[in-house]
Predict the 3D structure of the following.
Amino acid sequence: MESKGRQKNANSARFVIVGTGFAGLAAAVRLRQEGERDIIILEREGDVGGVWRDNRYPGCACDVESHLYSFSFAPNPNWSRVFSPQPEIYTYLQNCAKEFGLMEHIRFHHEVKRMEWNEQKGEWSIGTSKGDFTSQFVVGAFGALSNPSIPKLEGLQQFKGEVFHSAAWPENYNPAGKRIAVVGTGASAIQFIPAIQPDAEHLHVFQRTPPWVVPRLDGPISTEEQQKLKKSSLHQKVTRLKIYAQREVRVLAFRNPKWMKTMESIARHHLHKAIKDPELREKLTPDYRIGCKRILLSNNYYPALAQSNVEVNTSGIAEVTENAVRDSAGREIPVDTIIFGTGFQVSEMPYSENIYGRKGHTLKEEWNGSPQAYMGTTVSGFPNLFILQGPNTGLGHSSVIIMIEAQVEHIMKALKHINRKNLKTIEPSAEAQERFIRETDQLMEGTVWTSGGCKSWYLDQTGRNSTLWPGYTFSFLKKASKLKRSDYIGRREGKPKPAANHGVTLSK
């Protein structure tokens, strides 16, 4: 795949990639491997890394094994632990950007404000915080976990203490001697609570719904093992494949909720072993099937909650005052800091309200509360837009890096067809997109994600699970690896604005 000639313009490129997390870097690497050099990568911050750059809270680490939570084309034999801590993943992404020659393409501190499809020119107009750009193709690697979700608490603006989300942890924050209110008990909170508990004067943990927590089978990777990995690419592949297979087997239980009872037993034993107080144990016991919400891994979360300076509050926050929070039971609790461990805005994808397609309306308006995309990657009515980690590409059992790489390969196949057929635009047909969503929803039926008895962030405004892929990753890989050309509609280069039935169907 070679770049076609374009008039040279510093703010124009054949490809614009938005974001430098795992997804953005994966797309850029593959484009370069295919001979593309006309690439601009827009990054709103001052360094690469996405969620692993931004989340620097104490205890931050991955809950997927290191050798699977990394690019298949860039294995790292130097991981220090089974589950990588944030600094190592951040460094890994920085190294990948440098080693694969991506730094020359990146425009840092360029936050995308608006994207609009220009039908006459057959290109995207992209407005950023530092000027306007144009591009024939846009790869939206926005990041599913890039916009923090902060609840609207009455009186929060008048609070005189420190307030922050775990994704924006202040570098100089010191919890020593402070009275801290932690709002939320999700994946981030269960990592930073044990890290700050020993120093805090008191921790008030406001829990809405208790998570299921299972042991974290972590530990250091020996020097001997690291040397084996360095010397043998086969050993690297076998190690990764073993982890992959172990995780794929779990899909059977997610798709057959009654099979989750064994894992529930493990989680209950984990809870009972650490929490001896019956009242606290009851607060921490979920009333839904394990897997319905994200399963969390921790060895120190429950022990931290059992300490004398920690209180788990299930009443909820009714109001915030200048120096306290008032719970729904009417109790006023003096605090110095409020930390939100409340996750991210996942059901409404980043930037969706600012991306305008052919019809002149936004992606958010098109989705109307339920994000939908063909292969989770392309959207009818939004030509030449490829979304990574789009709808129904998240996972509840394995590494999303697998899904990202599968999506990137699907994009590469689409681009090869564009070049071969001399097309200017490409998008999925409405019928193909609807079929993909229908098949995905059918596959989702009966899974723990839809029948587990919980209210999860996996579900969108309509109650549909538009976040996760409901099957094996290899089933998605198989689908994405084949470009069903009849599912895509293209328009040839040089033709005027066509009527809806004047496009070129990519038939076999």
User: Anything to note?
Assistant: Residues 3-7, 494-508 have pLDDT under 50 and may be disordered. Residues 12-48+102-147+348-490 form a domain with the FAD/NAD(P)-binding domain fold (CATH 3.50.50.60). The radius of gyration is 24 Å. The chain is about 30% helix and 20% strand.
